[in-house]
């Protein structure tokens, strides 16, 4: 795909997505006070699905039924199951974790996508990617530092939350790997519409929609933000890829965990949250930074490998 050459616009759209993803776990954590995870997920899927269907319908771009058969139908099913599991496990995990921890652990998702691409699609895996993987794993170890033993022994608290977040990361990687192949038959917005509508129908069976009446004005505002977040963030992400290289977009999106740390630090004094916002040990901040750096190296890995080979050839 040829790029528009408007790199500044691509960077701005990528930063918009990163900011929205950085705020998302904070918003979800606030809504979880008076609404269960299944109901939140229902509203997120349903609202995004309906808005996408209206938008695609107005443009005459709804997916044709003939494209939903055979292998494409199977891939859509994998995408639906993967993203539904990701949303569900992520939210349940948030009941046991603060947003900063959640955003750090979920960085396993792009790592698993990278490894899955190497395994399934025979994508290159060079020294830069290996360095990125090692940095990410070391960063997670530093992030949890003295809590590392508790993570493996606390089966009801943070340890359980981390385990669920790992499952959420695995589910997202499965969805992304399936979508990579499905993009040959449908575009990203059509895929997201189908996933969101299917997700809305599925989680309606588990949700309690009338819980929305118990929300305060502030919580309702956060819920609306959560519903629109996926639509706007993924739309900005898809459009960014038309203007900027995918590796650069992915690298900029990797700063989302740092933005979550930043928003918690800046907003908590003026907007008290319903979760623990105390300062973490300095090793945790170092570890989070290393996790982000590892994600950036992984995202830029192929470019770094090519540059290194070019320098060696010279």
TrEMBL record:
Residues 10-143, 160-297 form the EamA domain. The chain crosses the membrane at residues 7-28, 40-58, 70-92, 104-121, 128-145, 157-178, 190-214, 220-237, 249-270, 282-301. It comes from the Bacteria. GO terms for cellular component: membrane. Belongs to the EamA transporter family. This is EamA domain-containing membrane protein RarD. Signal peptide: none annotated. It comes from Gallaecimonas pentaromativorans. It is found in: Cell membrane. It is a multi-pass membrane protein. Pfam families: EamA (PF00892). Its main location: membrane. Keywords: Cell membrane, Membrane, Transmembrane, Transmembrane helix.
